[in-house]
Design brief:
Elements (H helix, E strand, L loop, with lengths): L1 E4 L2 H14 L8 E2 L12 E6 L5 E8 H9 L1 H9 L5 H19 L3 H12 L3 E5 L5 E5 L4 H8 L1 H5 L1 E6 L2 E3 L11 E5 L20 H12 L3 H19 L6 H7 L5 H9 L5 H10 L18 E2 L4 E3 L7 E3 L11 E5 L5 E5 L3 H9 L4 E2 L1 E3 L7 E10 L4 H11 L3 E10 L4 E10 L2 H12 L4 E6 L4
Helix pairs in contact: 2-3, 6-8, 9-11, 10-11
Length: about 450
């Protein structure tokens, strides 16, 4: 119950009346008039045992205190000065209040700055609800951004959208003047794909914050399971194996692997961060090491490979597994062709360990100028007209060179297999292009093709 009066003396008079009528709860009385809060908030707070034995909180303050508490310092100043109502001033105050609300929704200060720049300092797009109400969104917003602007529950339950009466994908970028209608279910939650920046489902900070909060509210065990499934799916798609999860968890300052998985499940830790860490991580000790007394300093070679403990040797990337920076690698000394660089989980390396263990040597990547590396990817899909064209368009739009393409379609099952050879510069670039190919219509899976 809130009681508003004209003078401060009346606040204490009302407090006396309240305490005389109902027994008060000890320890629940606060005098923020005599000792205001740090933000300037002033009011009397008390709690009493009211009708039917229920506890009732009572707030007692003057009208100007209420203005300050409800509308902020700027409105409180206007009240005290007796300034006339100014619509432009009120809009500015409302805008500032919205910015402060965004700050409360975003835990990380860096994220807040990035989202502030994206939402406020960039161009806007104006769309319409079915009732004709104008909605103001950041340029590039999607139907999901629109749904979360209307209400968080509409966003959570969003499963489709109509724009000007036509069904559109959820990552469709809205244009000025379009009328948007959200197709939703009664109960549901957001998809983790909506937070993948490569897929373009979400543009506004409001939508992103609501989605992240939804995942944070899931229970711990569910988050662990979701995070583990998400990470394993990404590692499988990128063809990465033998990842030391304990060390990776420690790198992100988590006590154990379950906490690490839960952070991924809550989206506190983004997959892009994990992929970048895998690319830049410190290499584990190799399974096999070539002994060399007083090994000289490591030498850099043109293939971005660092060979430990030997002189100048020619190196080349093995065609069987085609490792790229970020993969754990090992070298095999060939006859007359220098050191062949393989991934540590390459089937040929397992054979070398059985029959030619003395020719295996420790190698590693070194940081040099960006070079391209050849990688094979496999796309599984139901065949349709324009499938290869769409896949090639995604690759081209990412600035990736397509070296070769082989396709096969089973006429009985209509199942298509596309084997592409790409020239990439990093694991993160590979992750991005695979994610976008995987979102194309009829595509069932897009992943890195590993040896064997």
């Amino acid at each position: 119950v809130r009681v508003l009066v004209d003078e401060i003396t009346q606040c204490y008079a009302v407090l006396g009346i309240v305490h005389s009528q109902w027994p008060y709860v000890r320890g629940e009385f606060d005098d923020y008039i005599a000792t205001p809060k740090e933000n300037g908030y002033r009011s009397l707070h008390t709690a009493v045992i009211g009708p039917e034995g229920k506890t009732v909180e009572v707030q007692i303050r003057t009208h100007d205190m209420n203005e300050g508490a409800e509308l902020g310092v700027a409105s409180h100043w206007r009240y005290k000065e007796g300034a006339r109502y100014d619509p432009n001033f009120e809009r500015k105050v409302a805008w500032l209040r919205q910015v402060l609300e965004w700050k409360e929704e975003v835990a990380d200060a860096g994220d807040f700055v990035d989202q502030f720049k994206a939402d406020v300092l960039q161009d806007r797009v104006y769309v319409l609800t079915p009732a004709g109400k104008i909605i103001d969104l950041p340029l590039g917003s999607t139907p999901i951004d629109f749904a979360y602007h209307i209400h968080s529950e509409i966003g959570h339950c969003c499963r489709g959208a109509e724009v000007n009466g036509h069904i559109v994908p959820l990552n469709y970028q809205l244009q000025n003047g379009e009328q948007v209608r959200i197709l939703s279910v009664k109960h549901g939650g957001p998809s983790r794909d909506w937070l993948n920046p490569h897929l373009g489902y979400v543009r506004s900070s409001r939508a992103r914050s609501h989605i992240q909060r939804w995942f944070k509210q899931l229970n711990y065990s569910q988050n662990v399971g979701e995070g583990r499934e998400t990470l394993e799916k990404e590692l499988s798609r990128l063809g990465l194996a033998d990842i030391n999860l304990e060390r990776l968890a420690q790198q992100f300052k988590h006590r154990n692997v379950d906490d690490f998985m839960a952070a991924i499940g809550r989206n506190d830790l983004k997959l892009s961060q994990v992929v970048n860490a895998l690319q830049e991580r410190e290499r584990p000790e190799p399974v096999l090491r070539r002994a060399a007394p007083e090994a000289p300093a490591a030498i850099e070679y043109g293939t971005d490979i660092n060979v430990q403990g030997v002189g100048d040797l020619l190196t080349k990337i093995a065609n069987c597994c085609k490792p790229v920076p970020g993969d754990a690698v090992i070298g095999y000394i060939t006859h007359g062709q220098g050191v062949s660089i393989h991934r540590q989980d390459c089937p040929n390396v397992l054979r070398f360990k059985e029959h030619h263990v003395d020719r295996l040597i420790e190698v590693d990547w070194v940081a040099k100028a960006k070079n391209t590396y050849s990688v094979d990817i496999l796309v599984e899909a139901f065949d349709r007209t324009g499938l290869l064209r769409d896949v090639v368009s995604v690759v081209t739009n990412e600035g990736i060179n397509l070296v070769a393409a082989n396709t096969y379609t089973n006429p009985k099952t209509n199942h298509a297999r596309l084997l592409l050879t790409l020239e990439i510069i990093s694991i993160s670039q590979l992750s991005r292009v695979l994610a976008k190919i995987g979102q194309l219509p009829n595509v069932m899976e897009a992943r890195r093709r590993t040896a064997g």
